[in-house]
Amino acid sequence: MPFWLEAHGRTLGARRPTARQRPPKRKPSYYFKRQCWASCEAGEELAPVFIEHVGDDYLTIATDYPHSDCIGKFPDRTVGDLTQQQITFQASAAENSLGQPGALIRTGGLIHMSKFHVVYFGSNDVPVDLIKPILAEIDADMTIRRPTNDAEVVEMGKDADGIIMHGSVPLTREIIAQLKRTKVVARTGVGVDRMDLKAASDHGLIICNAAGCNSIEVSEQAIGLLIAISRKLMRMNQYVHDGKWRRHTAELHAYRGRVYRIQGCTMGIVGLGHVGKQVAPRAQGMRLNVQTFDPYLDPKVAEKMGVKMVSFDELVKTSDFISVHAPLTKQTRHMFGAPQFKAMKTRLT
């Protein structure tokens, strides 16, 4: 495109332009700083889509053929071989060039589509104050829906350009096939196991998650459960609520079982990713020896954290506590079975 513009400028400088030629109003270098829509074979009808995402002031149209619809829509920023005929446009249309419903509005010589519409699926309190300023940056609006079945997901999401999903809302192949307008689905969490990623890829639907968004919360929960289980806090809480508190009695010790000191024990972390990297220093803060099994981890990362890398079998056999922070995949499904549980220490948590 830069070479085309430079050549076009030199050619027009050598001779007068014909009726079909429209010379650049500025030096070619000016256009290099802008987004350029280069089109041929009647592709200019998609230009409004590009403008919607790029902005009015940052677009130059370049074409190789006298498509009159383009010069009519963009009379002030078109370079190429175009006719000068005047075109009258409708103020509205039943659908835009992507088959999306909504009016097309003529403003300042440009055509704008309706706002980018986002639907939020979730059953909890929606952080509206957090989301809306972000959506405002792209001039998008948002509605909140709470579907309870597949049919409601389709009905409530059929007009969405983008969907934000919280919780366990499913996204099956059948649902994806009916969300014809939707371009992107964003998970508020990490897991995407309830989404048919192959179907999304087949339909050109982008799926994204918020990897690492809750890693601190999950790591704190893991450490909290480790303490609660190893110190028998839940059993003792129930013992007191049942009115059976008898300190230093055989009954108490029989009910509670033996309690071991956490400090000095070994914690095995399966998966030293976003969450595992948060669990490790918290465990080390309680003077636990931390080791990990992660076939995808750079050994230098573990070394820098003071975490020992071991095989899966060694981790199972030598850990006093095991914390699993690996995604559910074909490789990790049924990772722990009867052989692994049999190989563990008898007092492992």
Write the layout of secondary structure elements.
Elements: H1 2-14, E1 21-22, H2 28-32, E2 35-39, H3 47-54, E3 59-63, H4 68-73, E4 78-81, E5 105-107, E6 110-112, E7 116-121, H5 128-136, E8 140-145, H6 150-157, E9 162-165, H7 173-178, E10 184-187, H8 197-202, E11 206-208, H9 215-230, H10 233-241, H11 250-256, E12 266-270, H12 276-285, E13 289-293, H13 299-305, E14 308-309, H14 312-318, E15 321-324, H15 338-343
Category from helices, strands and their pairing:
alpha/beta
- Which class of the largest domain in CATH terms? Alpha Beta
Helix/strand order, N-terminal first:
HEHEHEHEEEEHEHEHEHEHHHEHEHEHEH
- Total domain modules: 3
* Main sheet specs: 5 strands, parallel
The CATH topology assignment of the largest domain is Rossmann fold
Mean pLDDT: 76
CATH architecture of the largest domain: 3-Layer(aba) Sandwich
The DSSP helix count reads 15
Shape: elongated
Number of strands: 15
Distance between the termini: 64 Å
Percent of residues in helical segments? 25-40%
List the uncertain runs.
1-22, 64-68, 77-113
Strand content: 15-25%
Question: CATH superfamily of the largest domain, called what?
Answer: NAD(P)-binding Rossmann-like Domain
Strand order of the largest sheet: 8-7-9-10-11
What does this structure look like?
The chain has 349 residues and is α/β, with parallel strands linked by helices. The chain has three domains: 2-112, no CATH class; 116-208, 3-Layer(aba) Sandwich (Rossmann fold); 215-343, NAD(P)-binding Rossmann-like Domain (Rossmann fold). It has helices at 2-14, 28-32, 47-54, 68-73, 128-136, 150-157, 173-178, 197-202, 215-230, 233-241, 250-256, 276-285, 299-305, 312-318, 338-343; strands spanning 21-22, 35-39, 59-63, 78-81, 105-107, 110-112, 116-121, 140-145, 162-165, 184-187, 206-208, 266-270, 289-293, 308-309, 321-324. The strands form four sheets. It has a five-stranded parallel β-sheet. Strands 1-4-3-2 form a four-stranded mixed β-sheet, covered by helices on one side. A four-stranded parallel β-sheet has the order 14-13-12-15, with helices on both faces. The longest helix is centred in the middle third of the chain and has 16 residues, at 215-230. The termini are far apart.
